[in-house]
């Protein structure tokens, strides 16, 4: 597994505390001594987060977009230069194997994904090239994230005249680019920079006013925004509808519902047109007075019966202990739940509306005269 398993050089920054050794974020700083202050900086001012444990690779070749379009869930055949999108790789049964972000810049498609899963995604794509003019290969680049409304004050340090729009890309001098994302906050930007330049960029941004923030801050804001993380908030049964990944680029989704065939499309179409997902992603508020905490993957129970799976658990600077969970669709929002020894309650605003009849079901009923 290459560079992502190596501890980030930014762990030597003052106050840096690494993620738990057994977790997916051990290679980067979890916080710098003030977790809630770092979250406030990311939400209200401007903070820089080390996410250099993400796996980055490139795809070059004239058919890079049209080829990837045929083997993934998003509509990217005509993405356009300096544009980005979110995308999924599904198995034959429509279960999510990989979630990734892609950006096209000057003839190269850049892809970044979860560090532990990146080599598998790259290996799969390399096997699927066949005769297409597309060449996936590793790239020694790293990801930093800038969060907060005062990012606009850093255009000079970034070397850009103006900030890009959502899913748009601005090239950086010396290699790499700046990309705006629609989450975890309204003001979220990723920098993909040469890994050898990671420390230089960190110093440049912090000297310009960005406050260091650990991944704890990013994760807390991500959970509050109801954005799942693959392998943490999902399991090996998760389908896109359950994790809120349905939608084209304009909807900030990762699954376009009107495109050609790709692996797993049958399940996506069947659920969208005829069925309902068995589970859905919700935000849980947890009782922080419990003596012990559950862990990711633990069951969520109602009356002693398992009704869901716990994902990311994190302390939010305003909301307190919160978590994402995949809960059975039939569970009402006011159901008393437990996550381990902690009482849990569904945030009613996080419950998706799924009472509209599917187009396919309506068509079938019309054919049957109903």
UniProtKB/TrEMBL annotation:
Keywords: Transit peptide. Gene3D superfamilies: Probable tRNA modification gtpase trme, domain 1. Residues 38-243 form the GCVT N-terminal domain. Residues 348-370 are annotated as: Disordered. SUPFAM superfamilies: Folate-binding domain. The keyword Phosphoprotein does not apply. InterPro entries: GCVT_N (IPR006222), TrmE/GcvT-like (IPR027266), YgfZ/GCV_T_CS (IPR017703), YgfZ/GcvT (IPR045179). Pfam families: GCV_T. GO terms for biological process: iron-sulfur cluster assembly. PANTHER family: TRANSFERASE CAF17, MITOCHONDRIAL-RELATED. This is Glycine cleavage system protein T. It comes from Nocardia terpenica.
């Amino acid at each position: 597994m290459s560079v992502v398993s190596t501890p980030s050089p930014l762990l030597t920054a003052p106050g840096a505390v690494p993620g738990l050794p057994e977790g997916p974020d051990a290679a980067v700083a979890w916080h710098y001594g003030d977790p809630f202050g770092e979250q406030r900086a990311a939400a209200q001012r401007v903070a820089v987060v080390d996410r250099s444990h993400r796996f980055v690779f490139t795809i070059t070749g004239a058919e890079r977009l049209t080829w990837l379009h045929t083997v993934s869930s998003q509509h990217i055949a005509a993405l356009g230069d300096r544009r980005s999108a979110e995308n999924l790789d599904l198995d034959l049964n429509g279960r999510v194997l990989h979630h990734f972000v892609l950006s096209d810049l000057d003839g190269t498609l850049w892809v970044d994904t979860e560090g532990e899963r990146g080599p598998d995604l790259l290996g799969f794509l390399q096997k699927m090239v066949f005769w297409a003019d597309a060449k996936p290969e590793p790239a020694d680049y790293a990801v930093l994230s800038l969060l907060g409304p005062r990012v606009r004050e850093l255009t000079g340090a970034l070397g850009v005249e103006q900030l890009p729009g959502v899913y748009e890309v601005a090239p950086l001098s010396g290699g790499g680019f700046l990309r705006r994302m629609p989450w975890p906050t309204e003001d979220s930007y990723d920098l993909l920079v040469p890994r050898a330049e990671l420390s230089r960029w960190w110093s440049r941004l912090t000297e310009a006013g960005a406050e260091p923030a650990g991944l704890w801050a990013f994760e807390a804001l991500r959970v509050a925004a109801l954005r799942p993380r693959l392998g943490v908030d999902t399991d090996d049964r998760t389908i896109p509808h359950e994790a809120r990944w349905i939608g084209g680029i304009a909807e900030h989704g990762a699954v376009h519902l009107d495109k050609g065939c790709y692996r797993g499309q049958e399940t996506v179409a069947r659920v969208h047109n005829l069925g309902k997902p068995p589970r859905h992603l919700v935000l849980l508020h947890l009782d922080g007075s419990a003596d012990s905490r559950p862990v990711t993957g633990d069951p969520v129970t109602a009356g002693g019966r398992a009704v869901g799976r716990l994902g990311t658990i994190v302390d939010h600077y305003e909301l307190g202990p919160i978590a994402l969970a995949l809960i059975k669709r039939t569970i009402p929002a006011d159901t008393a739940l437990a996550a381990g020894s902690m009482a849990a309650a569904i945030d009613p605003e996080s419950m998706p509306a799924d009472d509209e009849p599917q187009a396919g079901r309506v068509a079938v009923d019309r054919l049957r005269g109903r």
